[in-house]
What we know:
18% helix; 5-stranded mixed β-sheet; Ubiquitin-like (UB roll); single chain; alpha+beta
Amino acid sequence: MTVKVLIPTPLQKFTNDRATIDCEGKSISELLDALDTACPGVKKVLCKENGELNRFVNLYVNDEDIRFLDNASTSLKDGDQVSIIQAAAGG
C-alpha cells in the first residue's frame, strides 16, 4: 500500500530536496516510521520522544486533518496523500 507524503520545504533537507516521498503504512503511525526509515531524522523533528506528534505539526490525509479523524491511528489506503504542515509563528 503506497501513500504519497508531501514534504514541506524546511524538511526537504531530510529527503535530498524531494517534495514528495512514497511510503508504506496502514496508519499514520506506521507511515511516520516508514518515512523515518527512508529519511533518517525526520521523525525526530515531527514527533516527541514518546512518538506523539509535536503540537506545531499538522498532518492531513486527503485534505482531512488527522486531529478530526483518529490522530496517529488514522487508517491509510493505497493512493492516499498525506500532507505535513508545520505551523509558522511570527509577530
